[in-house]
From TrEMBL:
Swiss-Prot/TrEMBL keywords: Hydrolase, Metal-binding
Protein name, per record: Fumarylacetoacetate hydrolase family protein
UniProt key word Nucleotidyltransferase: no
Record-level Gene Ontology MF annotations: hydrolase activity
InterPro entries: Fumarylacetoacetase-like_C (IPR011234), Fumarylacetoacetase_C_sf (IPR036663)
Organism domain of life: Bacteria
Location of the Fumarylacetoacetase-like C-terminal domain: 27-233
Membrane spanning stretches: none
């Protein structure tokens, strides 16, 4: 097939201890899925069901466990903020999935950052406009290699620590156990409004204490039993 403009390259995430790669399809994000963060953002976690937004696949920055990745401070913002998240990679798809189908759809997990232009997001929210300008932009989703799902990992992960440091100082710390909606519940809810596909990623939400970074700052984000990533902000 002849393309009238240069074809965009697809993004691939490595798979830990495997020579295969994960071709990134869509990147779904869950809004305010930790109660303390929901309150931090002005919502009532006991009342609000999960809601979803998306990042373009081109936002993903494959990030190795053992090396420091670099992302550029983005244009048009003065409030560039971090959000550490557990990322779920789907190996199967479907719609209106049951909890068992959701569990069986999980291929693996990763550590991710949902970087946000918070001032642009706030402006969009104030005017009732979509969030994409604050969420879906170049290099806004550094993500680690995929760690393949096992029953043992799944059982351990639900109680694992999640956290983030900036320049060595702890800023976010919580547990996956504090998710308002579990991993399987998120997949089920998402499958009620989208037909999910193999290759989709789901960023499952961030704990409280999100905050800003500037050029020169280095973030260290981790999920216990998965590993950690280091990301430096450049000019």
């Amino acid at each position: 097939m002849k393309c009238i403009v240069p074809k965009q390259e697809r993004v691939y995430l490595p798979v830990l201890d495997d020579d295969a790669v994960f071709p990134v399809g869509r990147v779904f994000c869950v809004g305010r899925n930790y109660a303390a963060h929901a309150r931090e953002m002005g919502d009532d976690p006991d009342r609000d069901p999960p809601f979803f937004f998306a990042k373009d696949a081109s936002c993903v920055v494959p990030t190795e466990f053992s090396k420091v990745a670099e992302i550029s401070y983005p244009m048009a913002t003065k409030q560039f903020e971090y959000e550490v998240e557990l990322v779920v990679a789907l190996g199967k798809g479907g719609q209106n999935m049951s909890l068992e189908e959701a569990k069986n759809a999980i291929l693996g997990y990763a550590v991710g950052l949902d970087m946000t232009r918070r001032d642009l997001q706030a402006q969009a929210k104030k005017k009732g406009r979509p969030w994409e300008v604050g969420k879906s932009f170049d290099q806004s989703a550094p993500i680690s290699p995929i760690v393949l799902h096992t029953q043992a990992l799944s059982e351990t992960l639900v109680k694992s620590e999640i956290g983030l440091k900036v320049n060595g100082a702890t800023q976010q710390i919580s547990s996956i156990a504090n998710l308002t909606w579990s991993i399987e519940e998120v997949i089920c809810k998402l499958s009620e409004v989208y037909e999910l596909r193999p290759g989709d990623l789901i960023m499952t939400g961030t704990p409280e204490n999100v905050g800003a970074v500037v050029a020169g700052d280095e973030m260290h984000a981790w999920v216990e039993h998965l590993g950690s990533i280091q990301v430096r902000v450049t000019n």
